[in-house]
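For practice. Any example?
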Amino acid sequence: MSELNIEKLFVMKCGGSTLAALPDSFFEDLRALQGSGVKPVIVHGGGPAISDNLAKLGIESSFVNGLRVTTEEVLDVVEMTLAGSINKAIVRRIQGSGGQALGLSGVDGNLILARPVANSDEVGQVGEVIEVKAEIVKGILALGYIPVIAPIGVDAAGQRYNINADTAAGAVASFVESPSMIVVTDVPGIMRTMDGEKVVLPSVTVTQIEELIASGEIYGGMIPKVRAAMDCIQGSVSEVVIVDGKEPQVLSRVLGGEKLGTRIIRS
């Protein structure tokens, strides 16, 4: 297998509901990048769809610090939704635009090895990543496909874990040595109140993020998002960019160096 050009590789994280709302032009941009030799890797979430399916089945669901409390019953629905309907919908949209994609979850080939999070007594079968088998991701890329990864992890005994998609994406970016990670959302970036108005911070350091969390400017589900971004700024990963997926040609523009959204940097 030929060695991949790491400089052309990037990891993209996107929520399932965000992806569903993205225009066709987003996927056409992704196809054009793939066609030019760029190697995208996608890690996706799907919180709202999981909540909808749990509600339809009459299964109660709750959250602790932005993480879904995951019993085995909830985990069945999480896996069905993430590795099933959402994963394949993303693959279909990429292929519908002329791109090539292959969908899998962290269970396949033991791609994402995990262990229980520290507060598993509160949140149940939620995992933290201990290893991502980068050779699987790079092998799929070398075959000419975009890996589309659902964030379900597994341990040596075969126990599944629900992994926060931002955390999973950060781990994938670190283990495949991606120079950058792009978080595609439905917001223009990390926002701060200045003179009574919310403004996008074009660039923010890890230290500034901790201050924003402490002050309450960053709260709820945004906390694991930015913490995952901070966690993945290690090794070859020098920055994480949070952008609005509805911006025209957002991926090409960010990869081309245009200042969009919020760039999270080491210092």
